[in-house]
Amino acid sequence: MTKQTLTQLEQHELFLTRHIGPDEVQQQAMLNVVGAESIDDLIGQIVPESIRLDRELTVGRPNNESEGLDYIRNVANKNQVFKSYIGMGYYPTLVPNVVLRNVLENPGWYTAYTPYQPEIAQGRLEAIINFQQMSMDLTGLDLASASLLDEATAAAEAMALAKRVSKAKKANIFFVANDLFPQTLDVIKTRAECFGFDVVVGPAHEAVNYELFGALFQYTNREGQIHDYTELFTELKAKKAVISVAADIMSLVLLKSPGEMGADVVFGNAQRFGVPMGYGGPHASFFVTKDTHKRSMPGRIIGVSQDTRGNRALRMAMQTREQHIRREKANSNICTAQVLLANMASFYAVFHGPQGLKTIANRINRFTDILALGLASKGLNPVNSAWFDTLTFESTNLVAIKTRAAAAKLNLRIDSDLRFGVSLDETTTREDIAQLFDVILGEDHGLDVTIIDEQVLAATESSIPASLQRQNAILTHPTFNRYQSETEMMRYIKRLENKDLALNHSMISLGSCTMKLNAVAEMLPISWPEFANMHPFCPLEQAEGYTQLINELSDWLVDITGYDAICMQPNSGAQGEYAGLLAIQKYHASRGDGHRNVCLIPQSAHGTNPASAQLAGMKVVVTACDAQGNIDLDDLRTKAQEVAEHLSCIMITYPSTHGVYEETVQEICEIIHQYGGQVYLDGANMNAQVGITSPGFIGADVSHLNLHKTFAIPHGGGGPGMGPIGIKAHLAPFVAGHTIIKPGLESDNNGAVSAAPYGSAGILPISYMYIRLLGSKGLKQSTQMAMLNANYVTKKLSEHYPLLFSGRNNRVAHECILDLRPLKETSGVTEMDIAKRLNDYGFHAPTMSFPVAGTLMIEPTESESKVELDRFIEAMIAIREEVRKVEAGLWPADNNPLHNAPHTLADIMDPEFDSRPYSRELAVFPTAVTKANKFWPTVNRIDDVFGDRNLFCACVPMEDYE
Ligand SMILES: *Cc1c(COP(=O)(O)O)cnc(C)c1O
Known about the structure:
- This protein is an alpha/beta fold.
- 39% of the residues lie in helices and 11% in strands.
- The chain has three domains: 80-499, Aspartate Aminotransferase, domain 2 (3-Layer(aba) Sandwich); 525-534 and 571-772, Aspartate Aminotransferase, domain 2; 781-937, Aspartate Aminotransferase, domain 1 (Alpha-Beta Complex).
- The glycine cleavage system is composed of four proteins: P, T, L and H.
């Protein structure tokens, strides 16, 4: 036996061999098929010489898993987890362990994609509709969205909605009560500036003094006060103002709902329903409005429809409204939202049920009462006269209090040299209250929590005035009343999970979405308390671990992107676009070029591009693509010339949305720069660039990265995401800032784009681990293998389906587009039929009809082995054969396995199946693999039109369960 060297033996342990699907034997076999001598030969054929990096990445050597985990453990240990009483929208919470293990830490939930294919997504669709039902019950309004990115961006969306629907057409003022959380106001101001709205901030009652289209109030406010706004809202509505309320979700369990007071929109962070603070995110914001505003609703809504059997089925309502974010008609640019976290919050409500939630909320309120009474008995009365969980005090002793707080390892909310606040939460205990007495009063107070509790019980007055106490029942739906035992809960979660196809069943080849492996070693750290339980506004010196993590990750991303700096604030790709465009606009303004407001966008762009440009207050001019899908340079030059000194920027995607490396990209950058414009390069396709080329190297000025695509954060069934932007040095002073925590890059007065300074910092450990484990070598190899896999699939499938586009040497980059339109002409079989038929074969459909209608875009990623690719190819070829039978007239166009797909158990149990011209076996077991590992779609094809005509976006009525 030949002995291996130690280095060879160590290599075997490297994570990169686990991340990359094909082993060396498979790689060689695939190279043979595509006709390349080596990986380098293949990459040489694909990537134009002029854009190829002439250096290796410098992110370090690959780590094995235990080494990487040891390292990040040390980083985590540098975070000091103080007990947080800061509040301001973020609260300690107890994640039910049954939800932690079975949802957050379960690939069946976290690796799923956005439910665009509802027949294989009924589980998470039900969980989201529970979220919507919960949101409606608590807010007292009747149409809820499926989650927005955070409370502050939801506020900006509420303002935009108010402008769209307000009948006060001439008004330009949006009024904001001055007791709103400052981070929310910050994001509102940024957005208002783009839209040209006037934001007026003042005491709530002064709202009536203005000609306004909308107004926003916080309930309970930043000091903990709760107001009954019923009369104020009536007056404001007489002025045709649209009223929004930022509400605390836990308080709503006990409080009169804002809907009852007359609010039109209610939103807020759902974090404290069982989602860790994570140093700022990810968390879901709920957003609820009136049914009359459904066409103006930002983000997604899940609705009820029926399948071809007439059975109830869930799907995204008004999907076509949203699928391309509707360019200039966009309501918002929200694509990736916060589905996984919305699901966690809804499961929290399902698990506790209305009684459990009331107990939790009552306990929080009782502890607050005890704290207030105890302190009052010592002469320290709260500033607020009514409260749910938050008290604000003025004290000349604040210096001493702060010192004692630090010694006790707890954080209070510090408003000024005199003012401080305390917010309690479901983790608060008697001991905590006793400790708070010690910290606030000093040791000799002699207060006893049990005795004060008796006094609170005996008191006639309540801290929640009678007029503000909730009178109606919440969460009466059976779903919230039958899973209070852990056994029932575990099975409910599992039952839903079983309905959904995620990466733990088969590959999800969604072009542009990069559904690669989300490795366990990358995921583990996000549950550690040192990362999970940090408040985003805790003093920076407590967050040394996060600071190190963010700095190291930024340095790596600088190396990978070729930019000079990274801004971590945007919490989705589309938010990154918005943040990047704002930086461009501020840069222009700083040079006296404030008039530059035109954004050129090629036809083939992702829908979020024009939507983000709209949000940033820009005018979109669309430029043409040629027959190859490349940007038409002549048209680009003409348009650039036409807009001339009004040119702000171009937004391009590279490799193009069509999956090819355009040779002219550097020329495009030059043309734009020549006219004084900036180049925004959409980084969604970074998986074809890492280690091979980079946006900075190509000549772009700014890009967002989708950490939830290229850098291994899982899709979570439609979020979370992170969309940090890389920028060249000249743009760095213009990136997003924050009112509370100063990330440091930006100049002082830059507004924020997200509620938290570093966006959804809680999931950054995933991308950090991804890069650390792969190292320079593994990152580059991943890109190469993504291209090998894509070209292998392309080669195999192009013998059966026409390929829409290819680049140099007839190669594609990391994805390919199959053109199904010719098949449709000869057979009547649509791209939808093929997508649904793939479900019968156990696969999720590739991206459908983007960027070209009637096509499928396939992106296999580097994580899929040749074995899995071959299974997918086998399915696609078998489907092509089925289409042939339709073409040949062997099967009628309206009765064949494609038209009737997906097939369910109900189909094959149906005696009428006998009249179909194909067998039951072909329907549900078309290949040997499906027999061994069958995925059963739980509903037949869903009727979208029916659902939109009969819009119903809540849990289905009880009778349907009987
Ligand atoms: C995914 C994607 C986006 C949007 O990213 P989100 O995180 O979903 O907002 C933008 N552009 C392209 C090309 C994409 O594929």
